[in-house]
Structures are given as structure tokens and as C-alpha cells.
Amino acid sequence: MKLEICANSxxxxxxxxxxxADRIELCSELFVGGITPSFGVLKNVSEEITIPVNVLIxxxxxxxxxxxxxxxxxxxxxxxxxxxxLNGIVSGVLNTDNSIDIARTKELIELSKxxxxxxxxxxxxxxxxxxxxxxxxxxxxxxxxxxxxxEKAENGIELLKELNLLxxxxxxxxxxxxxxxxxxxxxxxxxxxxxxxxxxxxxxxEKSIFxxxxxxxxxxxxxxxxxxxxxxxx
Length: 234
What we know:
The protein is an alpha/beta fold. The chain has helices at residues 10-19, 39-48, 68-83, 102-112, 129-139, 157-167, 184-189, 221-232, and strands at residues 2-7, 23-26, 53-56, 88-91, 116-119, 143-146, 172-175, 194-197, 200-204, 216-219.
């Protein structure tokens, strides 16, 4: 089983590599579900990280329906990731009814090639997950990141197992959200090939009346090692 670390910063990416993670999903601002990281972070990570790095392409927080201008920004960021020779793209687009915007998602997939393409947790907003899964299989994506339409992947395990049976060898279903050393074995025993987690700890929760009181977190080396110990041992 492979472990993908959702790294919210340059330091989190460094920590993920040091701890022995198999892959990184790079983003920023995890407290809003993640947005595309800055050019500086992308450049430094591309130069210094040797394990595969997939980049979240999401121009803002909120829903997954984008204006024409936002969609253009997403495409420019994908082009940048290709220039920096990163491993993959993590993105996706929905319609206002939370169905998959097939035309726009297909455009992002085609632009991303030859990088891999993961459809992100916008999947957890869809109304019909089995129909949406087949649509994404037909589009030829590599991976779907999902919690099984629940807040935590452990709570969505039954749907995740159902979807994993439907996937066969067409793509990889990547469970994510709330996975840790205590429950990682559940996903391994259920037959999943990969799991996704931030494995983060709070490094500062200093309060300020001028800014949002959001704790500063970083992916933690020891926490990652604990998860790896669970999933790599027989």
C-alpha cells in the first residue's frame, strides 16, 4: 500500500519525503480544503523533492463551479506544473447541480497530459457516485480522491468498498480524510492500494484580532512514520 501525504507547505513536503512517504499532494490553506500553492513553493518543491508530487489546481475555496476567468487561471497553473516537470495534477470541475462538468474536466485532463490526473474531493459532493465514477472512468483519469461522501473516510468505508469493486483496473480509488495510524489498517484490509492523509500537527495556534484564528499546521515526520509502519508491515 502507498501513502500519499497532503502537504500544505514547503516544510510539509520536506517532512513527507524525510519520513518516507510514497507521494505528495501539494497545496496550501488546508483549512479551506486546499488551494493551489504559490509559484515559489512549486518551484522549490520541484527542485528539491525527489518523490512524485501532484499539485492541487483549485483557484479558490468554496464550490467547484468556476467562472471563465477562474478556469483560465486553472489552465495556466497546469501549464506551469508541466514546465516544472511535476508528477501530476489534482483537480476537477462540477456543474451547479453538483454533477461532474464533463466538458471542462476533460479539457483539464487533456491539458495535463502527460502528467497524471486525480479527480479531487469534489467527488464527495456528487449526488450519484456510481454514475459519476463511470463518467470519470470514461474520461480516462488515473485516480479519484474521496472520503466516500462522508466527512471522514472511515465513515464512508462501505461506499468506498462498493466503488472500489466497480473500479476494477480502470483507475485507483484513493481514500482520504481523517486517516491515521489507528485506522489505516482498515483500508489496507479492505483492499485499497493507496491512502491519503495530511498527518499534520499544530505548530502554532497564536490568536490575533486582526487575522483568522486558524492554527498553523505541518505534516509531521513521526506521525507519517507511524502510518507507514502500519501499512507497510504484513
